[in-house]
């Protein structure tokens, strides 16, 4: 045990995700439990550079567990990408005696933290907080469960109107380069087809699945399109179908940023709670430049290089299931 | 009491709205209660023309009260706009002995029904089912309460991310030419500005409200834009602000069709239940070519001409409240 | 206009209700708008006696609009019922220069305020904040719409299991002596029977409605029981049915305090916003010892004596509708 | 591959759970995919004995994915526990040519199926559908994720009122002999203490955690009590605290059957979909008298004896996390 670390800074960075507050709370309370001081750095790297840093106690994170967003706010910082920016940030941490960092965010956040660690050797650990579930090294990222449920609730509502009007809907969900939200909200939403960046489905394949060249095809249907689709976004796919087939009444909905917010599910709260505690414990045990992850329901720590070397793949089985059930 | 009517047909038409099923159930059960037969006409005027009509009993509408959409389905019918189409429809009704009609829908539905009534004198009554709340003659239309809550829930989620990132969001809500959903979801969502078709707000007014020419302005903010906005849709307004001011990180979300679906609120279910019963009772009492409405919490019946003659105005007070609270 | 009032105190008292925070925010922002100072008195009359009072600005009520509960907290105060307690309270207000009061709460709150007004003539106004909707002088109290929706959502879930198991459920909802939540959640929830304090239904009537003496009766059913039921609570009614009939598999759920919490609906937020502004404007106009209300969608002010003289009746029509639809 | 099985019967039994419909749909569609006939047996073993069996096609399970409860209904059957009852059931299956069974339910369901398999060697497989998550052989049972989220949403609402009134709440959640729902809704709900059957916490321990003998203790708090608590249910624990300490304003809420209903989460829908397909594939591969499970996100099949031999343990880590975070 490296009990020498006595002051820890925590911050959120990159796109916000439901459960980030639960993670912040867990970091702060684990610090209290292990008798360390905890500092909240506002607006990610930007606040680190500007010295916008506040002390946090067990009570200052009361009643935030259930809230979407992040009380520490988030931002993308161009200045932190410069050596001067990082120097300022390091000086601010030093001034306050902050000896270690916990970052909550995605791959961009982690990349920044890695650079910072290489230059200043400040003990640091990353917690995966992003709705995209696109990080290898963990089965789940914080926010993914909530975002997928939000997408499914929206799809359920859209299905009501699709069924009532015998309409074909294209619903676009978030996920950047990852198809996780799409494949799982698609299976859960009973989609006829799911377009994800990980799969080489052509437009012709989609056209065939929809039975778009026959009048006898099912008229009320739903296609879920991942943001990262390689064959066109929801609007473009809808347009292509409409140009080639006159059998459908087609509508498009792009769910957008509402997928980022909302009160986190139990799953994301518990995941964030476990990861927050694990981050503080990891620092105590000398695990630096790593990301906390959950694999087969157990906490793991993986080095930056390992995480960045691979994509978080979607298993074959999910795709197979999607196919069987859209029969 | 005109107890001679013994067979009533019910259908939904136009855009679907949450609570339509509750209205169908109420019509059917009121028929049972008053010892009349009830027939469900599928897909609005289209099913009437095609003779797609089924008998409904008290049990056939069990467990639909809480569901979004409409079990009778809805469609827009071009053929019903022709005399030939209406002739076919009338013949189908006659064949089955259907003596009166209850239509659930918006102004398009009512206009078709009015034409039909003029030509064939079939006793008919309209129930206002539309999320837009754009019909004069009733304080509330079925689906409006649910749709506004759906919009507010989405805005709540978007606010989480707006606050976390200090972003300015433009959220576009439905309502066609009416600003009802916008003004009320805007007040309930704490919007900085609300753009509705009923108000002559210029882009400059909006720009001023946002304080877009000062760096000191509030950075995390929300503008709700009604679909019927006369100064541009959400995307266009966002673009205009971005072109003139560099102080904001701007995002746009168009809520779209998810506002039409979902399980209806208690308000819409009770409203639909009352209106469904009132429609059957109205027919019994010889009220034809009218729309059921609710005024000051009392059932009223207004003639087609009265309904169509005026717009459902948004009261001055709502706009005033919106202004005071966005301070 | 009585523009002499320049400092207003606001507090919540009695049982909390969703939308109280929206009302607090509206009072504070209306004060800002009309250039008055606003003070928040913590824990109702208790904080008034203890001098637990904080200054509030437009920003201090940011981001509370959507939250359940009350940020000013609530309590019941025995001490305020004594002349000594009220004296202390008055002295604390005087010390801070608070010249007028806005109370958000139910009849107990209003009774306390009335007494205080009689003794000290401090300009004061009450906003009806209670889920019970039991105050005459207003069509709706703040929190009632949300609580009824919460009850309906719970009933929807219970219906799933009732249907799956052919069970008879007794669901008890809140409302103290009022049957408002019960009658409307009962209609919206498709209940077979609704037991409210305002109606003289005997146990035998209930037994008959359920068809409990025949094996052919509907087995999956739901009875909604108001807290104020005069023929026994949910557990007692379930026991009585079970003792006399062996045809049912009976379960009981008492919804309890979850009906008090949760994010308010758009309706409660807008209602609270309007009433909060109206309270400040009422004080300006010299309306003292009154309660703000909403009647036929218009703001009204009624004197304490008027409010207390009568019960908020449930209309005949609701009961009639409930009967027709449970056919 | 045992492609000789060409007719499969599916049924739900025991307490209903959200996601059972998604599992039914997956079994039916997997049958279609693998060119088998599928029969739905109503009301579990009762319908099997009575011959209440219907043929199901891919379309007959359309639009049930998102619904709580079970369209095949569920019941507990005393008659199936007799050899005569099972004989009748077997004869009914034989008559229709049903060669294999898929049961969706908990340990009682599985026990019945095992007995039936031993007597008649009918190929059979069980899918774990219960909110309790109490079956070893699978990390998750269908319905558990939804029920835990339902509990957490209720706790969130109760926390609003607990905070507003500085109250201590005892919330009782379901789970029979298992503490899964309790421990995870407790962590996610920010409970001060969680009482589960798997842990030997004494009443004195609880009393100490609450700081109930000091006036300085936190007054607004939440204790989550599992149905299977060994030191008393929520009402009894509340009573004991109230008898020994006068520092608290205590309330109790027993969530009850609403935890069984509601639209399933994405997690439960996907889990149910995977397990439904896996059940049909398992039968094809000759896996009989087993339960489908999910372990480390992979489908597994475990023999009846293995499943029944052990309790589904709650990991040490969850309890540790609960302790650290309630600091």
Question: What does this protein structure show overall?
Answer:
The structure is a homotetramer of 327-residue chains. In chain A, 40% of the residues lie in helices and 18% in strands. Chain A is an alpha/beta fold. Chain A has two domains: 7-143 and 264-309, 3-Layer(aba) Sandwich (Rossmann fold), CATH 3.40.50.450; 146-260, Phosphofructokinase domain (Rossmann fold), CATH 3.40.50. Chain A has a seven-stranded mixed sheet with strand order 3-2-1-4-5-10-11, sandwiched between helices. Chain A has a four-stranded parallel sheet with strand order 7-8-6-9, with helices on both faces. In chain A, strand 1, helix 1 (20-33) and strand 2 form a beta-alpha-beta unit. The mean pLDDT of chain A is 95. The interface between B and C is large, with 45 and 45 residues.
Helix content of chain A: 40-55%
Taking strands numbered 1, 2, ... along the chain, how are they ordered across the largest sheet of chain A? 3-2-1-4-5-10-11
Question: What is the radius of gyration of chain A computed over CA atoms, rounded to a whole number of angstroms?
Answer: 22 Å
Q: Roughly what fraction of the amino acids of chain A lie in strands?
A: 15-25%
Following the backbone from N to C, one meets helices and strands of chain A in this order, namely EHEHEHEHEHEHEHEHEHEEHH
**C-alpha termini separation of chain A:** 55 Å
- CATH class wording of the largest domain in chain A: Alpha Beta
Stated plainly, the CATH topology of the largest domain in chain A is called: Rossmann fold
Query: Total helix count of chain A?
Result: 11
CATH architecture assignment of the largest domain in chain A: 3-Layer(aba) Sandwich
Count of individual domains of chain A: 2
Mean pLDDT of chain A: 95
Main beta sheet of chain A: strand number and arrangement?
A: 7 strands, mixed
Organism (chains A, B, C, D): Pseudochryseolinea flava
Cofactor (chains A, B, C, D): Mg(2+)
Pathway (chains A, B, C, D): Carbohydrate degradation; glycolysis; D-glyceraldehyde 3-phosphate and glycerone phosphate from D-glucose: step 3/4
GO cellular component, one term (chains A, B, C, D): 6-phosphofructokinase complex
């Amino acid at each position: 045990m490296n009990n020498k670390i006595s002051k820890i800074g925590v911050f959120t960075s990159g796109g916000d995700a439901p459960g980030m507050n639960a993670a912040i709370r867990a970091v702060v309370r684990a610090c209290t439990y292990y008798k360390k001081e905890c500092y909240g750095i506002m607006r990610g790297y930007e606040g680190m550079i500007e010295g916008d840093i506040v002390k946090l106690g067990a009570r200052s994170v009361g009643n935030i567990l259930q809230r979407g967003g992040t009380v520490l706010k988030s931002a993308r910082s161009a200045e932190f990408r410069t050596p001067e920016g990082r120097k300022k940030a390091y000086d601010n941490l030093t001034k306050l005696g902050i000896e270690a960092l916990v970052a909550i965010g995605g791959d961009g956040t982690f990349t920044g933290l890695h650079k910072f660690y290489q230059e200043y050797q400040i003990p640091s650990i990353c917690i995966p907080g992003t709705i995209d579930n696109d990080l290898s090294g963990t089965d789940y990222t914080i926010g993914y469960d909530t975002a997928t449920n939000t997408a499914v609730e929206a799809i359920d509502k859209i299905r009501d109107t699709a069924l009532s009007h015998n309409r074909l809907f294209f619903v676009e969900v978030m996920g950047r380069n990852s198809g996780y939200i799409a494949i799982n909200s698609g299976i859960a939403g009973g989609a006829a087809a799911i377009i994800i960046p990980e799969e080489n489905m052509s437009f012709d394949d989609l056209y065939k699945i929809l039975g778009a060249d026959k009048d006898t095809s099912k008229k009320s249907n739903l296609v879920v399109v991942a943001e990262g689709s390689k064959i066109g976004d929801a609007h473009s796919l809808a347009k292509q179908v409409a140009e080639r087939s006159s059998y459908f009444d087609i509508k498009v909905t792009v769910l957008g940023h509402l997928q980022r917010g909302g009160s986190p599910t139990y799953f994301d709260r518990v995941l964030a709670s476990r990861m927050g505690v694990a981050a503080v414990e990891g620092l105590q045990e000398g695990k630096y430049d790593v990301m906390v992850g959950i694999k087969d329901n157990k906490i793991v720590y993986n080095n930056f290089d390992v995480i960045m070397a691979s994509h978080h793949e979607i298993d074959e089985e999910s795709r197979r299931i999607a196919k069987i059930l859209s029969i």
